[in-house]
Amino acid sequence: MAPALGDMEPAEAESVYFNEYPPPKALPKHEALARAFIELHVEANRRVVLVTSGGTTVPLETQTVRFIDNFSAGTRGATSAEYFLQQGYAVIFLHRQYSLLPYSRHYSHSTNCFLDFMDEAPPVVGAANQDDGSIVVRDEYQDQMRDVLRKYRYAKKNNRLLLLPFTTVAEYMFELRSMAKLMRPLGPNALFYLAAAVSDFFIPRNRMVEHKIQSSELPPEYEKDSAVGGEGDEIYTGENEAEPGSRKKLVINLDPVPKFLHRLVDGWAPDGSMVVSFKLETDPALLVYKARTALQRYSHHLVIGNLLSTRKWEVVFITPDAPHERWIRVPKARRSKSISGVEDQVGLAEIKKGGAAPTETRQQPTQAEGPVDDGLEIEGLIIPELVKLHDKMIEKKNKATP
Ligand code: 9Z3
C-alpha cells in the first residue's frame, strides 16, 4: 500500500499532493494578476500581506455534488484586510468564493443585507413620473456608508487590493504556493496572515469516485458506471447486501491534508518574510498548548490562537520571544453582540498565573471603527499589534544587512 501523505517528509508530500491534482483553472490568470500587483508594490517599496480567508471544501466526488465544509464565513479575514489597508499595506485577499469581502462585508449576506440600507427618495416636486424616485441610502447610514465607500474606492483606485477566490482545499493549496513564490521579490516586506479555516482532512484523488454517490442500490447492469466504490475503495456507500432501490449508509475515509505550513515557512515564502498562522480550538484547556505546539513545529513568527465561542472578543498571541503569551481582548463594554458567541467563556483559555483573573488589554478603541452596532472589532486591535511585530522584524533585517 502507498504510504500516507502524513508519513512522508514535507517536501515529498508536497510533490505527491500537487502531482495528484490538476491546478485550478483560474491559476494562470490569478498568477498574472498577482505578478503585476506585486511588481507595482515592490517598486513602491510597499508592504504586501497575503490574507487567507474563509473555509475550504472537501469534495466527495470528482464531479462534485457533495462536499464537506466548515463554519467560516470569512469575517476575520475580510475585517483584517481592511485594517491592513488602513495601515498602508497592499492586500492579496485569497478567499473562499462567496465568503465575506473587505468593505462589501458591511452590506452583504443576510446579517447586513444591502437592501435594508436603502430607501426610495420622495418624488421630485413637479416631476413627470411621480413613481420613479431615486434609490437612496437611508439617513441613519449615510456617514458610515460614505466612510466605507471612500475607503473601498481608495483601495481600488490605488491598486491596493487584489481579490482571488478559491473553493476546494486543493485549490487553496495551489493558490497559496503560487502566491508565496510570486511574493519572493518582496523579501521582508511580505507578510502571510493565514486566517482561512483549512480542512485537515481530504479524500485523495485516487480514491475519489467520479460520479455522484448513489444512496440506493442500482441494478447490476448499472453498478459498474455508478459512483459506488468497488472492492478496496475507501469511500463507499454501505454494504452491498441490499435489494436494488433500498437505502445505503455512506462511509467516508479521509486522509490528513499534508502540513503545508512547513513548506510555506521553509520553502515557498520569501526570505525574511513574516508568517502568522491561526489556531482554532473549541476546548479552552487545549488552546494555548496547541498554539505553542504549532509555533514550535513550524518555527514561524506568530500563532494567533482563538476559541470558536469567543473569537470575536479575544485572541492570544503566541510568540517565540517574551512575553510568549499575550491576550488581546475587546473591553466588555465594547463587545459586539454575537449570536454564536458565548461571552461567559471569555478568559477561560488563559492559563492563570497565581489564580489571577485575566486582564483585559487596555487599548484605546479610538482608531478602530466598529460595525453598525458600534461594537469594537477585535481585528482593529490585532492588526496594529501585528504591524508592530512586523516593523521590528524588518528593522532587525535592515540592521543585519547594511
Ligand atoms: C482561524 O482561526 C480564524 O480566526 C477563524 C475565523 C476561522 C476562527 P470567521 O471566518 O472565523 O471569522 O468566522 N483560522 C484558522 C483556522 C485553522 O484552520 N487553523 C489551523 C488549525 O487550527 C492551522 S492553519 O490547525
TrEMBL record:
Amino acid composition bias (Acidic residues), ranges on this chain: 231-242
Example GO molecular function term? Answer: catalytic activity
Q: Where is this region: Disordered?
A: 215-242, 354-374
Q: Name one GO biological process term.
A: coenzyme A biosynthetic process
Q: What residue ranges are annotated as transmembrane?
A: none
Superkingdom of this protein's organism: Eukaryota
The protein here is known as: Phosphopantothenate-cysteine ligase
Task: Please tell me the species this chain comes from.
Answer: Penicillium argentinense
